[in-house]
Amino acid sequence: MNNLKVINELENLINKGFTGIKIPHVKGENIQIGKISIKKNKFGYTIYDTDFKSKVANTYCKSSAVAIAKNLAHGKDIVNQALSLDRIIEKNFIDAIFFKNIILITRDNIRKDVLQCRLDIATARTTAARNQLDYYIYS
Length: 139
Known about the structure:
Number of helices: 4
Number of domains: 1
Structural class: alpha+beta
Order of helices and strands: HEEEEEHHH
Largest sheet: 5 strands, antiparallel
Radius of gyration: 20 Å
Low-confidence stretches: none
Strand content: 15-25%
Distance between the termini: 45 Å
Shape: elongated
Helix content: 55-70%
């Protein structure tokens, strides 16, 4: 029982220590970056501003949510750019899943080649958008 008390006190100390620091940390099921909170839902991720108790944005991928939250915590507004990149990732990721499935079930070699080319394009666009989001996260 004494160990649980020590663990709870240490946990409270750590949580109090993170309130002013703008580094990502997990708090329950949420990711906190300063006063910005990211929560996973069944459609993606929702970003909240805990100071104003308002929803900032909904994103498809975690990278977009972290990029938005990190930059908002540091006073930069990149919401529109990150949401645009998020839509690119979402569209091309879903397209890639579709192309992979059709490549597996089709017997027409010409169609396979065309779909393989489209899959490569979708993968390249997803990677480029993800790299741009990584730039927003790490800069």
